[in-house]
Amino acid sequence: MKNFWYLFAAYSTIWTILWVYIMHLSRKNKELREELRDLQARVERVLTK
Amino acid sequence: MQMMFASKGRTLHAVIVYFSMLFAMFFVFICAPNEKIQGIVQKIFYFHVSSAITMFFAFFIVFVASIMYLWKRSDWWDAVAFSAAEIGVVFCTLVLITGPIWGRPIWGTWWSWDPTLTLTLVLWLIYVAYLMLRIDIHDPKRARFAAVLGIIGFVDVLLIRWSVEKWRTLHPKPVLIQEGGTTGLTSTMLWIFMFCLGAFLLLFFYLLRERTSITQSRHALEVLRQEIDDLLAR
Fold first, then answer.
1. ipTM tops 0.90
2. Given an 8 Å threshold on Cβ–Cβ distance, is A28 in contact with B214?
3. Cross-chain CB nearest to B39 (options A2, A10, A22)
4. Mean pLDDT across chain A, nearest whole number?
5. In A1, B129, B171, B218, which residue has its Cα 20 to 30 A from B9's Cα atom?
């Protein structure tokens, strides 16, 4: 098991970076949905005027 | 109906990616034999080389999509190029981190200013510059500049490939396909590697699909917001 920690570090880093990126995409998706809701509300306000 | 199928297709794609990555880890840690000289640390190879090939593929997509954008001026090609560049930078980061982690016990140093390693760092810097040029602002002028950078940047990918094969560098020569068409891997190592590569490419296509969809939706929202602002201003 010599050098096991290098293997552990490499795979932990890979999974951490992929996880962070997927979370980043998920946050962007959430922001888009919020913006869409905001836009829908604005359209409704314009239409009811 | 079409949206429901698209949503189901996305979920199915995500599930396939998740299980293929899990199986890849299982094969690497449980089934792959330890290499005689390098020992357990050689197992970094399976994800390191898969990340490198996926990165090359991502930058090839940037290259093709940038040419198509300059030719057709279609926002879809621009979104594909931008998304592939971002994902390519993520995979390039994985290559630049896992390489030195493997290099420390094998070479005795974390980093060497060897042509292959240096060119990979330059590649990362080129595409980070590409992303900085774009961020999330949709400006046709910036998109054109970025497309040109995306095309020129691909030359570095060819240089890296050439440096691995032809230059005398510290970086190992290709083991997957050696001169004469033979492979430097045992049959078990080879199929596990092919499985890992397949899982990484599936992950790439999943991320590309999601990122392109986000980029396009953001652009559509910006256009819509501008139209509403114009209507309100009248």
1. no
2. yes
3. A2
4. 88
5. B218
